## 1
Amino acid sequence: MSTAHVLLGLLAGGPRHGYDLKRAHDERLPRAKPLAFGQVYATLGRLERDGYVTESGQDRDGGPDRTSYELTEDGRQHLDTWLSAVEPPAPYVTSEIFSKVVVALLAADAERARDYLVAQRSAHMSRMRELTTAKSTPGASIGDVLAADYAIGHLEADLNWLQTTLTRVAAFSKEVTN
Amino acid sequence: MRPTTLVRLAVAGSRTDRLRTVLTALSALLATVAMLCAATVLSITDYAERYTNPLLIEPGLRPGVAATLILVSLPVLALAGQCIRLGAPARDRRLAAIRLAGATPGESVLIATAETVVAGLLGSGTGLVAFLVARRLLDRPDLYGQRVLPTDVLPPVPVLVVLVLLVPVLAGVIGAVLMRQVIITPLGVVRRVRTRGPRPWPGLLIAAGIGLFAVPGQLGEQWNMSKNTVYAFLGSGAVLTMAGVVLGTAWISYAAGVLLRRYGRGPVTLLAGQRLITDPWNGSRTMAGLLTAVIAGAVALAYRELLATEFRYYDVYNAMMGWTDGGMGAPDEPEFYYGAVRLVMVAVALASVVAAAGVLVALAESIVARRRTYAALTATGVPRRTLSAAVLLQTLTPLIPALLLGLAAGDALVRLILSEKPVGNEFRECVAAGGGGCEAPLHPEMATVLHVPIPWGNLALLGGGALLAVLVAVGAGLLVLRASTDLEELRAS
Amino acid sequence: MSALLSGTSIVRNYGATPALRGVDLTVDEGEIVAVTGPSGCGKSTLLHCLAGILRPDAGTVTYREQNIGLWSEAARSRLRRTEFGVLFQFGQLVPELTAVENVALPLLLAGSGRREARGVAAEWLDRLGVADLAEQRPGTMSGGQQQRCATARALVTQPRVLFADEPTGALDVLTGEQVLGEIVRVAREHGTAVVLVTHASSVAAYADREIVLRDGVLDPTGLGLGVAR
């Protein structure tokens, strides 16, 4: 997937070495899973093999040797292709929440479904509250805010869908029983 | 709340609010000047030969002149009342917003009233100044020291003060009374709606008024009434009749609306009819001044006819007696009496014009208040022509019956004083006794009964004039409708 | 410690239509409470009752241990210009007054002098970042600017409770977020409790806690599960 593309994107601004790349990644995409060093170097190796990046120099200020990498012309092209390719707009609903709610509503007994839904809603709400607090904290970085926005938007969409689904199912079962 | 805050909030207004202030001030000015003139005329004492005009010379005629002037000032006051309602939607929003900011209901009414009082005071103050300047400029005694106008007397200062304060205070009271019908909540202004349609009870008022008016004429001789009692009966009868006609217009509107809805075909009658049913009091409010003036005019016209009959009676009597110079009664100068009636008619005409202006103001206000509805109707494809026709219909449908009622009531009042005058009673009694030997009448009309005719032509002229005035007002109001149905209005909040 | 503001079994009807059918709620000093629920659930009516704009048909609204539901209209109005601040979706500014006059209005109504009131109002406009709009009228401002001015007016008397009914409902997401951020920040700085009515859970997420109304009663599940209809 796109760890490679993210690294290519980060290198588009100029040569960086591995540690630098990891830091920039975690900072720009704060709510994504943090990158492990091993993964950084493995990915860089693959990119070098494919001719997308190339070693641009060694520096050694005080610490161990550090190799910095830069984007090749091929790499830039590859990045551009990726950036201009339209992602398929969510072709499959694969969310765990989706499956669980559908199963709870259509298959599980009412009591259990109810407990689950209430707990899920409340978990969503408190997560949204946390994220809202995080992004309104003075000094929050743009990366933090973008990530929080993304997460809040999805959580809110989940909640709205949940509510609509409940209303729909209620109306439906009423129709059936009447 | 400090007075400065009150004034700031009272004069905080948009263009419509300023227009209202100017119109209120203007009508206050006119009313004050008219009443100052009336007070001046009343301040003249005794038989005042220093004037050239007999209306001012004779003590018995001066109250009539004063009454006429006051009659003119009444519709002007009514106009001020109409102006208070002008631009109500914007003011309602403003008052609600002020309430939301924490103004108490009393304070918001105070703010609304203060605006009217300030405008009224502005107008009546200017009126006083204008009056004082005018009486100085018009003070032109001729060679014999005689004056055309009573510019040499001035009402006492307390009277002046009272008159200058009267209009603002009245305007404030009217404003406060009008505000009683609205509840200014922080969420908006709620008008108390009368849910039940109006009933025809005002018909009873008209009946009672006519009854009271008839008392002196029918029973005056048996009861031996004092002059003041007679005036009280006539005055209260006239006022009750006028009130009955004005209030009855609401029922007429409602009934007309129901009929339009039931038998009407097409959108125009539907819109107009529903409007009349929804707000039947609109007609009473807008037409009050005009109807009052029309009733007064009908009374004056009928009275003119009564006078004419009396003069004919004198002519016949004098001819019968063979008197050629002067003779009985005071018909030496019937023109003088007709002049007095004409004066009243001029007053009525003036009053009608002012009242028509009031109709225009009220009409414009009601259109502006419902401009979103009109704009929405236009947006959904209702032609402006249809809307205009609906406005015209909803104005004229109740007006025409109300005008007829007013004319009839006015004429009926006077006919109760006198509707016929028999000549040659002795001869007729003699004939009736059947004894014979009755002296033949010298004059062909001597043995007849003189009927006071109904002045059909003049009444029609009066009613037609009033109708025309309203048509002009509606025409001008439709221009407002045109501006209000601009689809831009849908965007205005 | 008893709550700053509480409603007990609040019932309110519009004619024959019930809007609130017995709602309980407490708001503590300095707390931000979101009231959410679908359209027509009665959340605005609840806010109006709590703010003393409407009088409940039954039940009590208690502020500092006083049943303000029993107070006269005038007394509740005075409460609104001293202890309470009110913020709506739009339309609460007087269109004919300038921003600074609008913000000064509650102070002026309470009897402050013009100069003093304008001074305080200017400070609050500054606090909400719209000091340069002081002499403008609402009609010439953007929605976000209007809401900032309205927030300044709602807070100018340093109220103990701010009632906000969809304060960002007429604004786009970013502007709404900024305005909401300012409201919450200033309220927290001054220890003002906030009753925040909204239909959006992303707005409710600004609050410390949330209550959900449905068909005029509290919905403890938040999802309309097992609510008596």
Note: The mean pLDDT of chain C is 90.
## 2
Amino acid sequence: MTQIPTRRAFFVGGAVLGAGALATACTSNAPAAAPSSAAAAPQPAATGGNDAAGTAVTIGFSAPAADHGWIAAIARNAESAAKTYSDVTFKPVDPTNDINQQIAAVESLIQAKVGVIVMLPNDGEQLNQVARQAMDAGIPVVNLDRIFPDKLSYRTWIGGDNYGMGVAAGHYIGKKLKDKGVSNPVIVEIQGIATLPLTQDRSKGFADALSTYGFTVTAKQDAKFTVETGTQVATNLLQAHKKIDAMWNHDDDQGIGVLAAIKEAGRNEFFMVGGAGSANAMRDIQSGNSVLEATVTYSPTMASSAIKLARLIGQGKGMSDLVENEVPSSITLASETITKDNVAKYIQLGFES
Amino acid sequence: MIDTRQRGNVAGREAVWRRITGTRHAGLVVALALLAVIGLVTVPDTFATSSNLVSILALASTIGVITVGMTFVIIGGGIDLSVGAVMALASVWGTTLATQSYGPAVMVLCAVLVGAGAGLVNGVLVAYGRLVPFIATLAMLVAARGLAQRISEKKTQLVQSANDVIVSLSTTRWLGLPLLVFLFALVVVVGWLVLNRTTFGRRTYAVGGNPEAARLAGINIRRHTMYLYALSGLCCGIAAVIIMARTTTGSSTHGDLYELDAIAAVIIGGTLLSGGRGTITGSILGLLIFTVITNLFILNGLDTSDQLIAKGLIIVIAVLLQRRNALGGTS
Amino acid sequence: MLEVRNIVKHFPGVRALDGVDLDVRAGEVHCLLGQNGAGKSTLIKILAGAHQPDSGTISFDDKPIRLATPTAAMRAGIATIYQELDLVDGLSVAENVFLGHEHSRFGFNRRGESRRATAGLLARLGHPEIPPDAEVGGLSPAAKQIVSMARALSHDARLIIMDEPSAALAHDEVANLFRIIRDLAAHGVSVVYISHRLEEIREIGDRVTVLKDGRAVASGLPAHDTPTREIVSLMTGRSIEHAFPDRTGAEFGDDVLRVTELTIPGVVDRVSFTVRAGEIVGLAGLVGSGRSEILEAVYGARPASGTVTVRGRPVRGGPHGAVRLGLGLAPEERKAQALLLDQSVAANITLATLGNHARFGWIDRRGERAAARRLIETLDVRPPDLDRPIRTLSGGNQQKAVLARWLAEDRTVLLLDEPTRGVDVGARAELYALINRLAGQGIAILLVSSEVPEVLGLADRVLVIRDGRIIHQAPAADLDEHAVLDMIMEGSAL
């Protein structure tokens, strides 16, 4: 809370006076609205001499509209990573959730003959064609997160491990319950959007990991990655199961709503694992005053790494810790499990939802 | 001779009418009872518990409050597509750090005023700007979501611990019920009284049922229409407070597609989409049917897709029954 | 060619047609005359297939036919051009002409062919300048009428029924219309022509059939040389005598309603008059003469220039303001403009004066119901049931409820537009007595009726309206039905 009082007064005053002046009151106050402790560009562990200025590279960037904390963090991370290099010109296009618009945006990057394109497609299948066009035009594409089916459509893929996330959550829950000696535990899973392949991968990893302990998922329901759907689904699930041993919620954003529902129901007999690794979730884990004990990462820091990779590709460099002269064609980030013990190390990487 | 035959006809029609009005909500009550029976049979140990029933009421409360406002607008011959977006906007505006620094009372006031203000804009556009309600409120839907995203910078805004009084609406219980259920009940009761016991309510039926007759009877139909949308916006503001309490957040993603659920509940409840006829009781029963269906599906561990199919079927069946009633009433 | 025999048609409470006969020969222009409510529109709708007769026969080309639907009538070769033209504004001329019987192959419209055929029809009607591709919504009323006729011809219609085709047309456009009608007749097409204007009938018609009270009182009169007096007396002269209250000796107070230079461009032209407290003033005129528009403008329901004052205070702010100044309107279209059909009798009666039964917006239900009950009893609304939906009442009782709405508080001026339309005979007498009683209480009443005897029987003073102007005014006692009909139909002030 580092607010300038006069601005604050104006803002609330405007609200109180009614929404007649909706537009003006809030444009002028947008900065005051929610000052995030914006995720500082995560600094790399060590990249040796590669950070020294080299040939200038223009990096085009295209991602979906940031209507979700994770995606917003992706855009922010990409931008701040690019800013740290004097030899990088960052050229983002309008973020959009419309497939056609994203295709058009990427086409405009091809026309502009940028050096490298970093793209998080709305849908890998549907954007495959345009990525292929870029590659054919000699522009390397760094594919972020959602993968293109055609290997000719990207130079390098970097992304999280959805299956691995499920595995990490499954191992955490499985081990903990095994240690406690619980038999036939009630394990509840709250998914994100059920129709997405990433959700299905996460669920499969979760089930597979649990099965190594001889456990199965008792019930699963899908929310829609929003706080509100998280509340709705959790409220009903808590009614359906009077006693729960463990819960995995795929997404920390909707997790806020899930936790609110748990609090409202006054339940605390179980522990919960989150997903993605938001700053909120980490703070909850740190404070230890909710059922949330751990979260498995699917970190938006991958966007920072993607920009770095794009720069290296543009400059024809390899990754200095590796023997090879060029950047690898595929990098899968590990899903890390954050608990109270190691949360301090991660907390500055957490994204604000 | 003609006279007696006519009287016979009228008496017959009257009987038909009485039967329809008397049993106006019977179909809904039967449907609800049927769902309850399904619940008792399929999930006997979870469905009929008091905590599950409380959950159903808590779940229904957000859209419920919106449905009350929507009932007024639709009886008044309009439609409000912007409800979900306006609720999101109010929730966001009510939870900015700036607003939060003034404490919970200001947060509530801010949410309610933003809701009412956005509703007023709808009302002015429809009543004085002569925009078709569908278009005016569609524009508001899009714009209010955009504004909510802008203010929140697309982030989820948490209610801070200093303002936990708001969250206590959801966590504090009185007589075994969360306070927000009482808030919901209060809105329903006040809505019912306004619709049935005040000149405003009576004129709402007149404006929706026959705007020309209302105008010629000296009712200022434009001003009245404006108030109806402002009222709907006010309800969205109250719903925003409830969602803030329930999710501990304000977010531009709140209330997605609420407009469809609210309109569906109103229609299932027997309110004519063309206006002039309808009840709050019916709308709330319609909403409860929807909420119980969702609850039953989750209690049974069924897929959400089937739940959507069931809801679609219920809308169609309800409207078909309604049309039969309407024909019976007028023929 | 067309033979209609003994057609009977009932509507609830009304016998609209009571054994009508009509004969139309090939290639003739047959005029249909009659006052409002005589049964003309019902007869047209039966010929167009929109209504089914209760009994009677229709034969076309000596063969009995059944016109079960509008399409059946079209197929038989009978086309109807209604007063409110039934064209789709958003479609082109050609699309309208061939609407429902498009030139098509495999479901695809053959638009070129439609355009050519339309152009041919329009040329035949003497209007090749109307482009087949133009959007109908942008055409003038006269051009729209031509399009309607082209549509009729596109069905190879051999009998075209025209309902007041000249009402929306300017003078020279009427001349063109007549040229087309003559041309059609010369090609063997028969035309049934309905108009209130005798001069038109004399010009274009061959023979005349006069309807009155659902019967044809004269058929096949020669249109050119039957004396006006004879036609008018056929149209008037009631079969049922109404008991009009005796208004002699009625006492009037001061001028209450004063209307000065009231003008609605193109409809009403500088109309000025006054109504005194306790006086009934009647407006006599045809549909479209501006009589209803005058009422609506006085009430503030229609924009107009000029001034209207009630007891010296100007009426402002639309109906809302008019009601505050003590005006009340019982509009022409009871169901469309006055009633909340789904609502109870009580709610309908107290609609305008609800504020009197409410404190801070909260309705005093007992007070409201008591007031409604009192009015139902005073006006003898039957059945005397407050909670019954008003749609289940007969027309007369609905009308009483509309009047009751304005009696719930003291009104200064009542504007009554067709107060007895759709009301059966018995109930009319009651309404007349009621209106008389209201005037006796000192209410100034302005009355519009299409039925000249009603205006003459009820009003103290009559204003004759034609083409938006008052062409004559006189005490009712000094006028008779013939004279008034002459004036409103032919415009010859005495």
Note: Confidence is low (pLDDT under 50) at residues 1-11, 17-22, 327-331 of chain B.
